[in-house]
Amino acid sequence: MLKLVLTCFLLISHYAMAQPIQGSVTTWANNDYQPVVGQKVILKIFNAKKQIAASQAQTDPEGTYTFDIENQKDWFYQVSVPFDNTFFDSKFFAYPTRIVENITIAPTTGSIDDIQTTEVVFLEFGGTDLVKVTHQVELINTGKKAYHYGKTDAQPLALKLIEGGFNPSLIDGITRQEVRLDGETHTMFLDIMLPPGATKSFRFSYMYPLDHRGILFVRPNTQGYQSIHIISNKDQIKLAKDDATEIAIPESLGTKFSKAFELNLNKPSIHVKIGGVIPIKYQMRLWTLYFSLLLAVALLLYFFIKPSKQEEVTAEILQEKIKTLKASTNPSAKTLHQIDLLQRQLYHILYD
Fold it and tell me: What pLDDT shows up at residue 297?
């Protein structure tokens, strides 16, 4: 019985290790993906980041290919399709992946005229003056040729980052091999190939130190942009009416964000200032200035507007005033009344 179990285990293991690698090759025609027949396909095999072997196959009438390669758990693979002096590569994969994503081939171009871009920029303010900036980007190739960054006449696919940002992080949809960062120009270059009809969506983020100047968002070239949205979790952010239009927050974002704008793309380039949020350090300075002004006003009131002390009244002073008034000839009724009041006051001082 034990021998039978071991035999079955070995057979199952061998079958799993011998499972073929399969995929398909298509081309974009008549607004649809069509299978490519008889296309050469190369399987590259890597171990410890070095290519150690390769195998070739051709696509069948349905545009599919198969490699009968024994699995090795420490090996990595990549499928590459040579066409129009360009290699159309799959992503790297390893065991247990055996089905490769479809590869679309087409004549290549370095022009970005047929690439449409939509972008959403999320601004997340917290308890400090650091703002988390997240870009959500979608690229669509609407042309009949594949865009390839390596063409000698290629126009760069690039995104301008907010100047002063730091600690960039790729979230999803893009790899480090597809990105080049230029610190001097604050630009992210995309080293990608985008087949016709294909869409590439990705997200990345970085931190930005907020100061009194606000946030300057720049796009030197708006060619191909379908829309750009700025979404924030602070109600206070402001954009000039000539630069943007306030819109409702998409329900899919829930209650985390509270303000949204759509930028006006009626200019070949945009330079938009995002203001309205005062940095915490400047808020503290304003409060300090406010309390300093209150203290200054209080001191002014105390030293310059306080009532003067009344002259101290003594019996001698009253007697002198009474004597002076009685010395006048033909005193008036008013004088006599004043003498009477002073005598009453003198009485209280002497006998109370």
Answer: 75
Residues 249 and 299 in one domain: no
- Residue 53 φ/ψ region, left for φ over 0, alpha for ψ in the -120 to 50 degree band, beta for the rest: beta
Q: Are residues 170 and 222 in the same domain?
A: yes
User: What share of residues in the chain are helix, strand, coil (percent, to 5)?
Assistant: 20, 40, 40
Nearest CA among 65, 70, 54 for reference residue 99: 65
* 36-92 pLDDT per residue, tens: 999 999 999 999 889 999 999 999 999 999 999 887 888 999 999 999 889 999 999
DSSP H helical ranges for 222-276: none
Residue 183 sits at φ, ψ, to 5 deg, of: -65, -30
Query: Under 8 Å CB-to-CB from 229, ≥6 apart: which residues?
Result: 119, 120, 121, 247, 260, 261, 262, 263
**pLDDT beyond 70 at 311:** no
Helical (H) or strand (E) element with 193? strand 193-194
Residue at 240: amino acid letter: A
Say if CB 88 and CB 81 are below 8 A apart.
Answer: yes
The whole-model pTM stands at 0.71
- Alpha helices in the chain, H assignment, sequence order: 2-17, 280-304, 315-326, 333-351
Answer yes or no: is 47 within a domain: yes
In 3D, which of 61, 98, 103 has the Cα closest to residue 81?
103
Q: What gap in Å lies between CA 313 and CA 324, rounded to an integer?
A: 16
Number of domains present in the structure of the chain: 4
DSSP bridge partners of 79: 43
Domain that holds residue 142: 115-275
CATH number at residue 122: 2.60.40
Give counts: helices (H), strands (E), the chain.
4, 24
**In contact, 265 and 228? CB cutoff 8 Å:** yes
Instruction: Evaluate whether residue 80 is within a structural domain.
Output: yes
- Give the count of beta carbons closer than 10 Å to the beta carbon of residue 98: 16
What are the phi and psi torsion angles at 92 (to 5°)? -70, 145
Q: Where residue 15 falls among pLDDT bands split at 50, 70, 90? A: very low
> Is 5 a member of any domain?
no
Report the alpha-carbon distance of residue 272 to residue 220 in Å, rounded: 11
Do 32 and 86 have their domain in common?
yes
